[in-house]
Write a structure and sequence with these properties.
heterodimer, A: Rossmann fold, five-stranded parallel beta sheet, B: about 250 residues, alpha/beta, Rossmann fold, 10 helices, 5 strands
Amino acid sequence: MTQIRYYGEALPGFNETSLPGKLIVIEGTDGVGRSTQIALLQEWLEGRGFAVASTGMVRSALAGKGIDRAKQGHTLSDSVLFLLYATDLADRLETQIIPALRAGMVVLTDRYIYSMIARAQVRGADPKWIRQVVGFALVPDAIFYLQADLPHLVPRVLAEQGGFDYWESGTDLFKGRNLFRNYVRYQTRLLMQFDAIAQEFGFRRIDANRTIKEVYNELRREVAAVVAPMKRTLSSHQ
Amino acid sequence: MARTLRRGHYPGKLVIVEGIDGSGKSTQLDLLHKWLLSENYLVAFSEWNSSPVVRRITKRGKENKTLTPLSFSLIHAADFTDRLERQIIPALEAGAIVLADRYVYTAFARDVARGCSPEWVRQVYASALQPTLAFYFRVPLEESLRRILVGRPELKYYEAGLDLALAADPYESFKLFQARILSEYETLVQEFNLTVIDATQPLVKQQDQMRALVKPYLEGALQAKAGSVADLLQEEALLGRYLEQINLNKNGEK
């Protein structure tokens, strides 16, 4: 990230105009394999002498636990939850992501504002308002959107998670207890939203209907291009 | 022309108070609250930073001193939005008089004093409803500081604005921070046409002014007809022994 850009106004009290690190976002819906790919990329980058930090949605020290707890009670409205996600992101940006970028690290983040936006838009949020709220977000160096269709996603979710997650099935949106049907309806809408914002934010689409290895190979090539101009912090083993 | 927040069309009325610490706004709202109750009006009360869901996160951030101007602003917006949707709007729909100790203007003044962009903070609070009456208790800085700092109370980290590193000494920092907030409030008075109460006047006089301004909005407001329990006890020669038990149980739950 040579030059810092924001989607809206700059972070309050933040004066730097450039940072030596790179911010790479991996986006995609539930079960598409984001965390697996991040784990693989992190190891590969470290092996090549890059210092890597990884982070993801709802992992902030400040709000992560609070959001999980509040979600269990099913008591939050969509806009409150969006503001809590925004709080979580603000905390991670200021305490994890920016310090790591300042130190010249590659930051891999599992989802970013795009998941927040897609999720909120499925639930009918005002598109302008949600973009304004997260205007403090840094524009990443690259956004890789792992794109898979439902026939490929369903078996993975069943195999890896053993079933359909309440929230990933939009059970707050749909009546009826048929979790599978809810899951299909919700994910279909979510995928449509991701599709709708792909161009707006400049997603680099990665076909995630393929095997883990194929996806990894493509991601690795893409990531290599992003980090190519960087100085490595450690000497490479190779 | 003054700016207004979102217009809602509810049978209830929303009365809010604003002002810097030591302006006496909470005291005045409390007096108004008691008066309205004594007149049997149905009153709901909402306090800044009190959402049961969000408050724990805020508390953790304050204790660990990890809140930045940005996350401080966002978490308070989450708290406000939760209270707006779950307390304020339902009560207004039911026809109650809703009293709020601090409202979005607190965020507009305080978050901007912390360095957040004025326009961004206003955007974040886009869902806020325009109050029926918004009182601003105007007090000179020296007077509010005298009221707050008499007896040298312990000032909390964020309350004193120590996160802004304006001064190392909490009292000095508090003064500088309050001065910034005060100047933001003064711009808000113009921008949102807040109703100014001179908070250097005697308490009773301020309360009289508040009631006079509130009164026209009370016509047709919902009144509770349950009657006073105290009167009943006296008339029926009961002690209310088991009523105390109810209160004890309620407090035990907290």
